[in-house]
Write a structure and sequence with these properties.
Chain A: GO terms for molecular function: acetyltransferase activity; lipoic acid binding. Chain A: Its EC number is 2.3.1.-. Chain A: This is Dihydrolipoamide acetyltransferase component of pyruvate dehydrogenase complex. The complex is a heterodimer of chains A (428) and B (378). By secondary structure, chain A is an alpha+beta fold. Chain A has three domains: 133 residues, OB fold (Dihydrolipoamide Acetyltransferase, E2P); 51 residues, Irregular (Dihydrolipoamide Transferase), CATH 4.10.320; 219 residues, 2-Layer Sandwich (Chloramphenicol Acetyltransferase). In chain A, strands 9, 12, 13, 14, 15, 16, 17 and 18 form an eight-stranded mixed β-sheet that branches. Chain A has a four-stranded antiparallel β-sheet with strand order 1-8-6-3, with no helix packed on it. Chain A is built from eight helices and 18 strands. Chain B has a five-stranded parallel β-sheet with strand order 1-2-3-7-6, sandwiched between helices. The longest helix of chain B has 26 residues.
């Protein structure tokens, strides 16, 4: 039996995320067959097998972040003659008896086989004790879970552990309602654990890479462009209805439709009416762009990135929806190219997805305006002298006051708000 | 003093190419003298060149796997660049000295460096450990970009001072070849090397593999005018070759090296492509497209020479045998790498001075003391 420990696939990296397994227990693997794909701070890489044999167990799950040196897969050695199934005709039997200790010195921490030793005088820092992950495979139970296949599928999709539920159906069957209720429960009580601080009174996180770029961009923007922020509350009920109708339409069946899409379209329309907000202030002149490269601030595993949709002003609603979907998918996969982030002219930041009402965003350097889309929720709203529950949101934005004045800013934000209030205005 | 151009090239629109991407010979009046030079290579020679390329690539792939399996600290793939390298390797003469950067695996293997010695460098077991006296003038890898442009130029100037060149005897006159890439060409050291090489008429050829990407920066951004034209501005005779064409690389390098050994330094820009990552720490999908990679895959130097060999009547079995031999070598290399021990940490002190030295002895003792402080059993 042999264990493959996570190697350092870059230079001096200490951990990697398990992105996907390409093998499963019971599979036969040969030397250099791809076992899995991992993502490090630097890149997505495939790890080839150092062993020959049968996969006994995957020791880490997809989505888990694993320290370099941790065992990730266990392979049972095949028969000795099985080695001949490699391309090799010479005698090159590999017997990695030490269990595959990583030969190189980078990054391996902890574990009995580690080749780096700490001086006796140094106290080792205890590993952080985070909450234990729920096991995906329940321990063997005397009572097998009774549930219909569609219920099992639903539970899997919703991330509900069937074995942890007390079924309310006949003979303790776990029903669809049980699963839905459990999923709702999880939503209410999600993320309530407050993990202990890890050891030491201070933690020092080096500022580098994307973080450093973000920091510099924020400083450049905040200290060169005097920001002015404005807010307006708006009844977005018609936007919500419009989104609902779009979702139901067959043309939009394959794309994600959200209020962000209507917001983007509203901004494009409002820019045409107030071109100065889509400009770059150089000090000597105001360069007004007659095109819109619409940036979307995206929280990605690499940090905040602002890729933009090039020439968004020329797109139909469907094209825009497709472009937005591609842009966010690319950002989430960590595959955003530098060119995707250059030459933006205006930015939207969707802080509503985090449940925030509004905020005072900082301009993407070189741009004159940024709009924040807040959360949209039902609130009391006065319609024709009566208080009614309506879908209400706040449109907020920051603008470079060197470039434009309050009248232009206010007209622009009011235009955006009016579209959210009545998307039909886009038909003009 | 100025030297006549041995390439006869002014501003070229196409690199010198004797073998096209399909492996067919490219005949033209301009190519005739180059074909004449390439004729020095028999079919057996060409088959041997193919074998070296196949072995190098298989070695390269295996080393990449070993890095992903935690056995190497880093790997620098040369996949895609074997064609220019094999031509240059065969063009160099026995008495020549080679200064590589770190991607010249084929040249190193050709001059007699063992695969294990290269592996040891990337395993961190040796600080670039081979003795150029035992590797037919192949110096160690230079990991600091372009520093060796100066080392190689200085070495070539030394050859001149020794009177070991410019006697008119190509079989004995020495020359130097320096290998670097389009990214290194932007370094100050690279320009300084060119200035000194021309000023002192040093017997050197700079073989620059333009593989299009300096990690993530495209060569079109760093070099607004072609690199070979830049070299001409420094007063060197310069040629632009298809870097995936082993025959063009051989012919042009042979002629330029022979001119260099008579005191006319030269510069070759080899038009090629790095098919893999810059190193195993790099992810090229972040900055270039699959289409671009695909277009270069169709210009692969190994497939090109193989097609030429088939056209010359070389049996398929001979090519297959080379593939099998390469696979076996890679497998053996894997086994030896897994068995290889860790170098003693105090080894380095023995290579600082040729004789025992009190300061080194003291440092060696201190290191032993420090290591003992960890406790023997941990």
């Amino acid at each position: 039996m042999q264990e493959f420990r996570l190697p350092d696939p870059g230079e001096g990296l200490t951990e990697a995320e398990i992105v996907s397994w390409r093998v499963k227990p019971g599979d036969t693997v040969h030397v250099n067959d791809v076992l899995l794909e991992v993502e490090t701070a630097k890149s997505l890489v495939e790890l080839p097998s150092p062993f020959e044999g049968t996969v006994e167990a995957l020791l880490v799950e997809e989505g888990q972040t694993v320290e370099v040196g941790s065992p990730i897969i266990r392979v049972t050695s095949g028969e000795r003659h099985a080695v001949e199934t490699t391309v090799d005709t010479a005698d090159t039997v590999e017997r990695d008896e030490d269990g595959g200790a990583v030969l190189v010195g980078y990054g391996v921490r902890g574990g009995a086989e580690t080749r780096r030793r700490k001086p006796r005088t140094v106290q080792s820092v205890p590993a952080p004790t985070g909450p234990a992950r729920p096991a995906s495979v329940p321990a063997a139970s005397a009572h097998p879970v009774v549930a219909k296949p569609p219920t099992r599928k639903l539970a899997k999709d919703l991330g509900v552990d069937l074995a942890a539920l007390a079924g309310t159906g006949l003979a303790g069957e776990v029903t669809r309602d049980d699963v839905v209720a459990a999923a709702e429960q999880v939503k209410v009580f999600r993320n309530l654990t407050a993990p202990e601080w890890s050891g030491g009174r201070e933690e020092r996180i080096p500022v580098k890479g994307v973080r450093k770029v973000i920091a510099q961009g924020m400083v450049d923007s905040a200290f060169t462009a005097p920001h002015v922020s404005v807010f307006t509350d708006v009844d977005a009920t018609r936007t919500m209805e419009f989104v609902k109708r779009l979702k139901a339409s067959s043309d939009f069946a394959d794309v994600k439709v959200s209020p962000l899409l209507i917001m983007a379209k509203a901004i494009l329309w409002a820019i045409r009416r107030n071109p100065q907000v889509n400009s770059t202030f150089t000090g000597d002149e105001l360069v007004v762009h007659h095109y819109v490269n619409l940036g979307i601030a995206a929280a990605t595993p690499r940090g905040l990135l602002v890729p933009n949709v090039k020439d968004a002003q020329e797109m139909s609603l469907l094209e825009l929806a497709t472009a937005l979907q591609q842009l966010t998918a690319t950002a989430r996969e960590g595959r955003t190219q530098p060119a995707d982030m250059q030459h933006g002219t205006f930015t939207i930041t969707n802080i509503g997805v985090f449940g925030m009402d509004t905020g005072t965003p900082i301009l993407n350097p070189g741009e004159t305006g940024i709009i924040a889309l807040g959360t949209i929720r039902q609130k009391p709203w006065v319609v024709d002298g009566e208080v009614r529950p309506r879908w209400v949101t706040t449109v907020g934005g920051s603008f470079d006051h060197r470039a434009i004045d309050g009248d232009v800013i206010s007209r622009f934000v009011a235009d955006v708000a009016s579209i959210l209030e009545e998307p039909a205005l886009l038909l003009d | 003093m100025t030297h006549p151009s041995v390439t006869g090239a002014a501003t070229a629109t196409e690199p010198i190419r004797l073998l096209d991407a399909e492996g067919s010979l490219v005949e033209s009046d301009a190519n005739a003298p180059w074909h004449e030079l390439a004729a020095q290579l028999s079919t057996d020679d060409r088959l041997a060149m193919h074998g070296e390329m196949v072995r190098t690539r298989r070695f390269d792939v295996e080393a990449g796997h070993l890095q992903r399996q935690g056995k190497l600290g880093l790997w620098v793939p040369s996949i895609g660049q074997e064609g220019g390298q094999v031509g240059a390797a065969w063009a160099a003469r026995e008495q020549d000295t080679i200064f590589p950067s770190y991607r010249e695996h084929l040249i190193a293997l050709h001059r007699g460096v063992a695969m294990d010695q290269i592996i040891d460098t990337f395993r961190g077991a040796r600080h670039g450990g081979w003795d150029p006296l035992e590797t037919r003038g192949m110096r160690i890898y230079s990991l600091v970009i372009a520093t060796h442009a100066l080392h190689s130029t200085g070495y070539a100037m030394g050859i001149r001072l020794d009177g070991a060149c410019a006697t008119g005897d190509a079989q004995r006159d020495e020359a130097v070849m320096a290998f670097y890439g389009d990214g290194a060409a932007s370094q100050g050291d690279a320009s300084e090397g060119l200035v000194f090489a021309t000023s002192y008429e040093a017997p050197i050829v700079f073989f620059v593999q333009n593989n299009k990407w300096a990690i993530s920066v495209p060569s079109t951004r760093q070099s607004r005018s072609p690199l070979h034209e830049r070299a001409r501005g420094f007063g060197l005779d310069a040629a632009w070759i298809d870097g995936n064409d082993p025959l063009a690389s051989f012919a042009v390098t042979r002629r330029m090296l022979d001119a260099a050994r008579q005191g006319a330094p030269g510069y070759i820009e080899a038009d090629t492509y790095r098919m893999g990552a810059h190193t195993t720490s790099d992810d090229p999908t972040r900055y270039r497209t699959r289409d671009e990679e695909e277009s270069w895959r169709r210009r692969d130097p190994i497939a090109r020479l193989a097609a030429h060999l088939r056209e010359q009547g070389v049996a398929e079995a001979a090519l297959a045998e080379q593939e099998q031999e390469a696979a076996d070598l890679a497998s053996d290399l894997r086994r030896r790498t897994l068995e290889a021990g860790t170098a003693a940490s105090d080894d380095i002190f023995d290579h600082v001075y040729s004789e025992p030295h009190p300061l080194m002895t003291e440092q060696k003792r201190r290191l032993a003391e420090f290591e003992a402080s960890f406790g023997g059993d941990a």
